[in-house]
Amino acid sequence: MKELNIFIKENDLSKVTDILQKHKAGITFFEIQGTGRTPRVTQEIVHFYQTGRKTTPKFIGRILVITIVPDSDAKSIIEEILNRFGELKEPAGIIFVKEVSSAIEIGTNLTGDQILYSQ
Q1: 27: phi > 0 → left, psi -120 to 50 → alpha, else beta; which?
Q2: Could you report the per-residue pLDDT of 58-106, keeping only the tens digit for each?
Q3: What is the Rg, in whole angstroms, of the alpha carbon atoms belonging to the chain?
């Protein structure tokens, strides 16, 4: 099994979830803040007591989508995501692929790929 950690911009969430749902993959996602290679843009921050101050945010908001899929599906899911975004001048996100050595469903004691899809 493979765990895919997919970091994307918020407005790209449906592009990724559509592909994962097509493959009947389970989806978990979080709104996160972090730093990375994406350049941060200076923004004008307006507070009720001061205006016109420009700051560069320390962190950028992103969405982290986590899914675990069978080895047989991982490559095609990644290729579909890459094709969906196409060639861009700036990065649209990152996919980290991790190996999952085992999984056990609590209560039923099912293991492996059996737990990835609903019966």
Answers
A1: beta
A2: 788 899 999 999 999 999 999 999 999 988 887 889 999 999 999 999 9
A3: 18
Residue type, 60: I
Helix axis angle for 13-22 and 71-85, nearest 10°, is 150
Phi/psi at 107 (5° precision): 100, -55
**Using an 8 Å Cβ cutoff, are 75 and 23 in contact?**
no
Structure tokens at 2: 């493979």
Joined tokens for residue 58:
């320390």
Q: Which domains does the chain have, with CATH numbers?
A: 2-116 (3.30.70.120)
Nearest Cα neighbor of 34 from 3, 7, 66 is 7
